[in-house]
Amino acid sequence: METMQPIITMDYGSGGLRTAELIDEILLPAFGNAALNDLGDGAVLPDLGGQPVFSTDSFVVTPWKFPGGDIGKLAVCGTVNDLCMAGARPLYLSLSLILEEGLPTDVLRTVVDSIARTAREAGVQIVTGDTKVVERGGADGLYINTAGIGVLRAPGLGRKALQPGDAVLVSGSVGCHGAAVMMARGELPMEGNLSSDCRPLHELSAAALAAGGVHLMRDPTRGGVATTLNEFVEDGSLCIDLEEDAIPVDVAVSAACDLLGLDPLYAACEGRMLAVTASESADAVLAALRALPGGEGACRIGTVGTERPGKVVLHTPLGGSRILGKLTGAQLPRIC
Amino acid sequence: METMQPIITMDYGSGGLRTAELIDEILLPAFGNAALNDLGDGAVLPDLGGQPVFSTDSFVVTPWKFPGGDIGKLAVCGTVNDLCMAGARPLYLSLSLILEEGLPTDVLRTVVDSIARTAREAGVQIVTGDTKVVERGGADGLYINTAGIGVLRAPGLGRKALQPGDAVLVSGSVGCHGAAVMMARGELPMEGNLSSDCRPLHELSAAALAAGGVHLMRDPTRGGVATTLNEFVEDGSLCIDLEEDAIPVDVAVSAACDLLGLDPLYAACEGRMLAVTASESADAVLAALRALPGGEGACRIGTVGTERPGKVVLHTPLGGSRILGKLTGAQLPRIC
């Protein structure tokens, strides 16, 4: 005799009894807090005591689980990190689930646990949410949206703050998330110790800001380091000069990208930050990053310049250089 | 010769050039404002000057267009109304799109225009967003998530504020949204002048609060009036007595529900509000609602009592009564 595996059915999205069951049995036990437990249409929160920062991301990564994380961890890190990069202390998340009929309830529990664990780690509360269910074939398992509210602690960050001579830093090796997801898809004919860099950046970003002299922070997710750096300087009078041999790429990531014909500079990171700092602040920021878990590999990879306005220029060890454009096409679809 | 219809491709979700095109050509022209134009990872907003209220909803309605609205209008109204019902003035929305490869670009433009128009009507700004693309078959056209931030203007609303003798009001006829979507699906063998009630409730809720004596507001979306009223009293010592012949149901909705074997009391509304007020405030709140567009049909439908703790009791014109439970099963899947 086989035991039936419990699955999500359309009833769970009705707004009726089954929806209430899902909330009471799976969601509240994982996330319960004063604001959420009230189950109003919206969460009433304490005064922020400063300017709100607001961000959102939807997550459609496939497969839902990969070395180093899963769609739940990613959904928390993605929005938490966006808030951090905007100079905020992340405080509250909303969580909206689009579930596919037939999703094993155990998968949902695993993802919800992962969300709860990562939220605790990042110091944020899940205070409001929503659940929808679509028919079989309508959502590839599950999609997740999070939105987040933080309070601004570092005003004035942004592209406009960049100055010629600024240092370009990265908190660790690049492209791990992209490579790990490709491995999880079975698109690599190798067994590697690839693991996603997926992690919340609340401590690293706070430490960088405390060290001083930070002009701009971003996490290089979709499109990778190359695309993100292009966004820093496009349509402006500045350029970024990157030193190819200064950019940290793990051997396994490099090998995986070689096999797939990809460039690690365009592969997504989900727990790395790029920081542009005043030149004289670079060493202090690097020291602050290196002192923290996830920042041990922080290093300087380039400099803001003026020679090639609007461009990102990669300088090779042999003295050559080439322009790194934005990602064209969909190098790595559904990476987050 | 046929002209190729422009469609969304996987490239639009890459985070690279095509994503930037989508943002620059379709999204920014529709929503542009100072916070969004900055295109940082998060939107930095002005101090709210009060307590934040935070809410989110994902929208998976099928079909994407129906009489009286579309998924874009619904996505704005849904979250705006949740904020309003929680006693907030809605201020800011995030917008996250999950697009299916192959979606005609014209459909996206239509939906985006609808979002922009409804946001203007409701007085909210779209300040941050995200776009993902999934392969053909992965999202039934498009799914939308909105999250919203408002500022609390009426503290103390909630189930705990209910008192025996309180009046139960509704701002207009019930079940129109559910019936209109079913008609759009071609599930009704009739041509009717059914139209969704989908609309932002910012003015109606503000007017009700200004009139005074409001204890609780909710919009009866999924699960309809019956399910929402159950949530007001479940697990408590109060009940709600409804007068069946006082509940406004449009003739076309009634006919459609008859044909489908549905009960209008369980059909979704997306632009109606239930308000529970102190008995002596009911007339003033009704007058305030009736003076506004969308509130012309406001009426009193019941009373908070104590006889059947935790229950919603429907009293029929002939003197009978029956318990209205929460919706069981998925009466109307993907209604919002």
TrEMBL record, chains A, B:
**What SUPFAM superfamilies does the database record attribute to this sequence?**
PurM C-terminal domain-like, PurM N-terminal domain-like
Q: Which InterPro entries match?
A: HypE, PurM-like_C_dom, PurM-like_C_sf, PurM-like_N, PurM-like_N_sf
What GO biological process terms are annotated to this protein in UniProt? protein maturation
Q: Which Gene3D superfamilies match?
A: PurM-like C-terminal domain, PurM-like, N-terminal domain
The record places domain PurM-like N-terminal at: 41-151
Domain PurM-like C-terminal, by residue range, is: 163-313
Family affiliation: Belongs to the HypE family.
Indicate what this protein is called per its UniProt record: Hydrogenase expression/formation protein HypE
**Biological source species:** Subdoligranulum variabile DSM 15176
